[in-house]
Give the backbone structure.
Amino acid sequence: MKLYHSPTSPYVRKVMVTLDLTGQLGEVELIPGSGTPLAPNDATIAHNPLGKIPCLIGDDGAAIFDSRVICRYLDHRAKAGLYPAGDALFPVLTAEALADGIIDAVLLTAYEWRLRPEEFRYQPWVDGQTAKVERALAALEQTDLVLSGPINAARIAAGCALGYVDFRLADLGWRDRYPKLAAWYAAFAETPAMKATAPVG
Ligand SMILES: N[C@@H](CCC(=O)N[C@@H](CS)C(=O)NCC(=O)O)C(=O)O
């Protein structure tokens, strides 16, 4: 397999942690693929018209994209059980979507200050994205399938989302407001798969 990759993308991190936890890390070649809406990456676009990473080239040579689809493919490929069968699947998918929504809001905020010229920045829009992060963190604080029990895809996504909050919104100070989430994350962030993929920059 090939993975269009960036060391700072939290969506790519979800895939890397899933590869590691399912014993498939040695089966994938990493290819630099990062771009932005203003500076798209041609190599990524050749496989994903949206120009977004992660994008995986699977066993049959076809592109698989969106981190949720890739993580589910890898789980299916390894029969790892990160996505439970039956009715238990849907709370995990919903909690994964909640964590991904945190990443979406933080990424949009980061794009605002990294890509948008200063005279076009609109603070109420940034505040709206930050409010989404806050509400989603409050919901994760109440999400038992993230905080305890067997490992699942939602927990991986939540770990990558919190890592990205710390990376891009270091001043948010979320730990005091969400102590259960903070205690869980303190331990999860120290696991080998998370330590090996921590964003640097
Ligand atoms: N929903 C997608 C989001 C992927 C995404 O937005 N990736 C960013 C990198 S962190 C990207 O490639 N952005 C480039 C762009 O938007 O043009 C997923 O879960 O994979």
